[in-house]
Amino acid sequence: MKKKQPHGWGTGDQAEQHYLVQPRTLAGGGDIRHVSEFLRASGWRDKSRTAGPLHMESPDRTLRVAYDPYVLPGGWTIHGRAEGPDGEWAAQLGMQTPVEIIAGLTDALTRPRTAHAPNVWEPLEEQEWDMRFEGASYVATSPDGAAWMRYHQSTDGSAMWWTGAKDKQGNGWAAHFTPNTPMHLVQAFSTELAGPEPVMRPRGHFPLSAQIRTWSVSVKPSQLSAWQQARITAARASTWARNSTKGSRPRATAPPYSPASGVRTRR
């Protein structure tokens, strides 16, 4: 007997009902392959056991991304390792953290760090989040009041980032980053956290909440596959370009002696 293919990854092409959900922070977890397939296409190793939790590892073995729904509270763990006493860092994110927001951070793990100084608050300010001090914390809250991001610095100098979203029915998620999480990764996360665009979910795969807006759309599996494949192709192309650049670099040699970069239906 054939196994039933998951949404968006099968071979049938009959249109199915999906929903665009806004705000994205309350859309529910989504398909974890949005994260894992991009990492795999970027050269990461899939260390997952059969029918077990997701466990991905970077090519140089310094980064790990895991998703475990079989423990409480369950969710995502992202861990990094580098040389030096402050080289270990981690992020813990709840199961209902939307994969599109998770991917902001995990996609950034596959790219070289830019020379620009990171600013975690900038994407939130651009979307007119409310910024304020609350005691020893600096807090940003989304215009609808559902999502938040908090930075707290202790008297010993250590700092922590907390973030999350919750509706009035209690649906939501929370996440935190250890003090030495690279700031460009936290900014990549905050960029997707503040993103105004809706995200797509199959029928029945998002929370029932009075605080979300939905638009019904009919989507063929072939369309979903094409969108997913475009994301995977982009990851492969970027990885190939980086590897080609590394391979084409001339070896350093001693210099000679010298003195002197679809139609939407709103519900």
Q: Which strand order does the major sheet show?
A: 2-3-4-5-6-11-10-9-8-7
The helix count comes to 5
Work out the strand percent: 25-35%
Mean pLDDT figure: 87
**What general outline do the C-alpha atoms trace?**
globular
What is the distance, rounded to the nearest whole angstrom, between the alpha carbons of the first and last residues?
Answer: 38 Å
Q: Determine the fraction of residues in helical runs and give it as a percent range.
A: 10-25%
Number-wise, the strands total: 14
Nearest-angstrom radius of gyration? 21 Å
Order of helices and strands: EHEEEEEHHEEEEEHEEHE
Quickly give the structural class. Answer: alpha+beta
Low-confidence stretches: 1-7, 251-267
Biggest β-sheet strands, sense, barrel: 10 strands, antiparallel
What does this structure look like?
By secondary structure, the protein is of the alpha+beta class. 24% of the residues lie in helices and 28% in strands. It has a 10-stranded antiparallel beta sheet, covered by helices on one side. The protein has a 4-stranded antiparallel beta sheet with strand order 12-1-13-14. The longest helix has 28 residues, at 221-248. The chain starts with 15 loop residues before the first strand and ends with a strand. InterPro entries: DUF317_SPDY. This is DUF317 domain-containing protein. Residues 236-267 are annotated as: Disordered. It holds the Pfam family SPDY.
